[in-house]
Amino acid sequence: MKIFDTLQRRKVEFEPIEPGKVGIYVCGPTVYNLIHIGNARPMIVFDTFRRYLEYKGYDVNYVSNFTDVDDKIIKAANEEGVSASDISEKYIAECKKDMSDLNIKPATHHPQATKEIDGMIRMIQKLIDNGHAYVAADGTVYFSVETDEGYGKLSHKDMNEMMSGLRDLKVSGEEQKRNANDFVLWKPKKEGEPFWESPWCEGRPGWHIECSVMSQKYIGDTVDIHCGGEDLIFPHHENEIAQSECATGKPFCKYWMHNGFLKINNEKMSKSLGNFFTVRDITAQYDPMVLRLFILSAQYRTPLNFSKELMEQTKASYERILNCTDKLKELSAVCASKPYSDAENEAAAQAEGFVREFENAMEDDNNTANAETAVFEIVRLANSTVNGDSSAEYVAYMLEVIRKLCDGVLGVISDRRADSLDTEIEELIAKRQEARKARDFKTADAIRDQLTAMGIILEDTREGVKWKKA
Q1: Beta strand 10-13 pairing with 2-5
Q2: Where does 65-215 show beta strands of DSSP type E?
Q3: Rounded distance, CA 244 to CA 246, Å?
Q4: Which terminus of the chain has a lower count of CB atoms within 10 Å, N or C?
């Protein structure tokens, strides 16, 4: 299996530190609001990578944190007149709901920054003791980048050039820094902020230190694979490497994987541009599996453009999968139990070829785009070779293959689901029927208009009212 390692800037052969086991750390969201579809991309693509490793028999320790203390969380808490923990716990719960809707597997560990403060204090003290950090007059603790010879190796930035550009900058509150690139490990409390006791002052940790401490606690000094969005390469991941390696004297991470940005109609997603979408915004309009299938339609390192047109195309593609499994399930109940025919043996061999194509795509740097193509080839093959005369064993085989790759690895549920929306629709249709029987046509028409607005098409047939999504 090959993955693109950001540190080496090339595809390399993946070899875990311990045979058969893989430790993966994925930087999670800062929980001050609902997650947006940009947050969802790394969650989905690295969940899929994890699923493939498990499909290949690896024991995966998958760790993804929640940043639950941050300026944005504190700001939201002050605006709502509640505590910062009230905000973070609320949005951790909302994030987990969205992740569940998107069929993202729970992490082996979901650590929270506020529950790991003692470990952060210990690592910071170790960095001070070995000369890699210093305490300013107000109790702020800074990491000294000049003490780390390898600083900049992940982002491939020239620190001398950075220094020449920053030398004359004076940032309010940071005059205590010895070097403009030094970064905060611990900061003093401000009025109205949550704080913890430390040897240096009452305060809270800087952002970068939390991931170093949590990855070390839940995986070890050296992580097999560290993942996140490409916006985290510098400074967050660069700083993680510096503080971790200077604290332990060991390599922090063997491989780095970073996903590309998600754009909206070829523009950067931004609230100011009015093109900012939460996962909840999109799943109110589309099945969450459509969003998941869309996210996986591009190789994770490439930029991904989001648009309504592309979502509609993905919706139609997902419907092809659902229609195929509907057909296979219906035929499995009526087809006879008999040996494979020669034609079925040939088709099964073709399916196995597409399975190999799927695996080759996944082993080529988690290329989910090509893996999806292989799945749709299997769907096409199933549609063209399965009928009422097929053997029950062949029908079951084709259904198993689709579920193994689609549900198991891509995480895209291939069975049509009756969800809460379906229940709501059925209830509205029943109320409309009651209104019609009572000759309350105004109410009946209003309910029909409501269903139309929800994207539901009604068909009055001899067998009763049938409906489908537009």
Answers
A1: antiparallel
A2: 133-135, 141-143, 183-188, 203-205
A3: 5
A4: C
Question: Is-contact 386 331, C-beta < 8 A?
Answer: yes
Residue 302 three-state SS: coil
Who's near 439: CB < 8 A, 6+ residues apart? none
Helix axes 441-453, 420-437, angle to 10 degrees: 160
Q: Is the dihedral of CA 112, 114, 116, 120 positive or negative?
A: positive
Q: Which residues of the chain have pLDDT under 50?
A: 164-170, 420
Instruction: For residue 142, count CB atoms less than 10 angstroms from its CB and return exposed for 0-12, middle for 13-18, buried for 19 or more.
Output: buried
CA pair distance 102, 138, nearest whole angstrom: 45
- Residues 359 and 389 sit within 8 Å (Cβ to Cβ): no
C-alpha to C-alpha distance for 432 and 307, rounded to whole angstroms: 34
Contact 126, 221 (CB under 8 A): no
Q: Quote the pTM value.
A: 0.88
What is the DSSP annotation of 314-375? HHHHHHHHHHHHHHHHHHHTTS---PPPHHHHHHHHHHHHHHHHHHHHHHBTS-HHHHHHHH
Contact between 159 and 145 under an 8 Å Cβ cutoff? The reply is yes
Token pair in block for residue 217: 């606690």
DSSP letter (8 states) at residue 227: E
| Per-residue pLDDT reduced to its tens digit, 309-350 | 999 999 999 999 999 999 999 999 899 999 999 999 999 999
31 within 8 A of 76, measured Cβ to Cβ: no
Residue 405 φ then ψ, to 5° = -85, -45
Paired with 203 in beta bridges are: 188, 196
In terms of Cα–Cα distance, which of 218, 248, 190 is closest to 115?
218
* Whole-angstrom distance, CA of residue 251 vs CA of residue 23: 14
